[in-house]
């Protein structure tokens, strides 16, 4: 397998940083992308593409949330988990730490 060059690694890093919503990663990788020879316009284009890719699952989550509003609890009771999944190993807390 061919190794990625510095520019290619920078593009991948920018995409991953944006996809993970990590501000410190973005702040770290943009200067690195410039050092690797990418122009501001190339960096901007890469971020725009990464954002479009990131929006696909985000849109699906929003659509799921909105569809749940339109159903009654009785209609969705069988398909809804008793845990949100964000709580790690403690099922008594939701993602906001509230029981």
Your description of this structure?
With 99 residues, the protein is mainly α. It has a domain at 6-71: AhpD-like (Up-down Bundle), CATH 1.20.1290.10. It has four helices and no strands. It has helices at 6-19, 23-35, 40-69, 73-76. The longest helix is centred in the middle third of the chain and has 30 residues, at 40-69. The mean pLDDT is 82.
Task: List strands and helices in order, with pairings.
Layout: H1 6-19, H2 23-35, H3 40-69, H4 73-76
Helix pairs in contact: 1-2, 1-3
Can you tag this structure with a few keywords?
elongated; AhpD-like; 0% strand; 4 helices; mainly alpha
Kindly summarize this structure in a few lines.
With 99 residues, the chain is mainly alpha-helical.
Overall average pLDDT: 82
CATH class bucket of the domain at 6-71: Mainly Alpha
| Main sheet properties | none
State the low-pLDDT regions, or none: none
The CATH superfamily name of the domain at 6-71 is AhpD-like
Helix content: 55-70%
CATH architecture of the domain at 6-71: Up-down Bundle
Helix/strand-derived class? Answer: mainly alpha
Please tally the β strands and state the result: 0
Number of continuous helical runs: 4
What portion of the residues fall into strands of 2 or more residues?
Answer: under 5%
Taking all Cα atoms into account, the compactness measure Rg is 19 Å
H/E series: HHHH
- What's the overall geometry? elongated
Indicate the CATH topology of the domain at 6-71: AhpD-like
Distance between the termini: 49 Å
